[in-house]
Specification:
alpha/beta; D-Maltodextrin-Binding Protein, domain 2; 2 domains; 13 helices; 43% helix
């Protein structure tokens, strides 16, 4: 009888240990991953949905700091992020070449659009982007009533893409566009706020399609509508990278690596592709793995190869 009692006591202790261990695992505090990102991703609501899902499934709290790409990169260069999630190929390339970014992968794409008043006072609807920009500038500098171009003016990925179109159209942005009159207004704000300004002023604005759809859904009476949606210069590619531990040893490389691999996994790509379909009847972002070979032009980014934990 004594032996049975002892045996039962041991089983009770073992059960308590196992049960307690399980509780510790289930109730453990989530780790935190600092993600510097762009407002054109954040304003759509995608990142809020992703934050909730990822915390529930992986016990990692994604702390997003939405800014223009230029400001997000500046923040990452100060060590204020573990991950960079942006959409400006030229700025990303420089960031990596300077040794700040590693494990660069493509996750999604959509397109930029030029939106403007339904009345289209500049008459640019259906033009190629460069042609439309040229005509808006021509009429704007001539003081044509109702012709106004609203720019983010914040060194964001969207602003950088806008400047590339001005250059492609044959204009020096700093001397022939910026500061050349009241026709060109810079907000210095994010995409959502800049769209609000353009709507209030009845101006044209260069936007990513996803944020515009979200804006229009929330502001159905806005006078803005898409006037230009086709052209090679309108591709908008989104990528992720980890901040190099060689620059900042405290970078949370473990969670950053897991997050990157989740974004390019079947699960992560499906999450991105499903977002927005119920509300808008189409995804706001197209998973990059829908492209047969994203390493080729015009995407020029690996979107399938898993990354390893980087070391200093």
């Amino acid at each position: 009888m004594k032996k049975v009692t002892v045996a039962l006591s041991v089983l009770v202790v073992l059960f308590a240990v196992v049960f307690t261990a399980g509780c510790i695992t289930d109730d453990s505090e989530p780790t935190e991953l600092l993600v510097a990102t762009t407002t054109s991703l954040f304003d759509t609501g995608l990142l809020d949905a992703m934050q909730d899902y990822y915390l529930e499934e992986y016990n990692v709290n994604l702390l997003f700091t939405p800014q223009g790409t230029g400001k997000a990169i500046a923040s990452a260069k100060k060590g204020d992020a573990d991950v960079l999630l942006v959409h400006s190929p030229s700025q990303e390339k420089a960031f990596i070449e300077e040794g700040y970014g590693v494990n660069h992968r493509g996750i999604a794409y959509n397109y930029f659009v030029l939106v403007g008043p339904a009345a289209d006072p500049a008459g640019v609807k259906g033009m190629k982007p460069e042609e439309g920009f040229t005509k808006i500038r021509e009429l704007g500098t001539a003081g044509t009533d109702g012709v106004l171009f609203v720019s983010r003016g914040d060194a964001s990925g969207t602003h950088t893409a806008e400047q590339k179109i001005w250059k492609s159209a044959g204009f020096d942005y700093a001397t022939e566009v910026q500061g050349t009159g009241n026709w060109y207004k810079e907000t210095g704000a994010g995409m959502g706020d800049s769209l609000t300004t353009a709507g209030e002023l009845g101006g044209y604005i260069f936007s990513d399609e996803a944020t515009f759809l979200k804006y229009k859904n929330n502001n159905p009476d806005s006078p803005l509508e898409v006037v230009i949606a086709e052209g090679d210069s309108l591709l908008n590619r989104y990528t992720v990278m980890t901040i190099s531990p060689a620059k900042f040893p405290e970078t949370n490389v473990e969670d950053a690596t897991d997050f990157t691999n989740w974004l390019i996994s079947e699960e992560g790509q499906e999450f991105i592709g499903d977002f927005g379909t119920e509300t808008y009847g189409k995804p706001l972002f197209t998973p990059l793995q829908t492209i047969a070979d994203s390493t080729k032009a015009p995407f020029n980014i690996d979107s399938t190869t898993p990354v390893a934990v980087p070391t200093a």
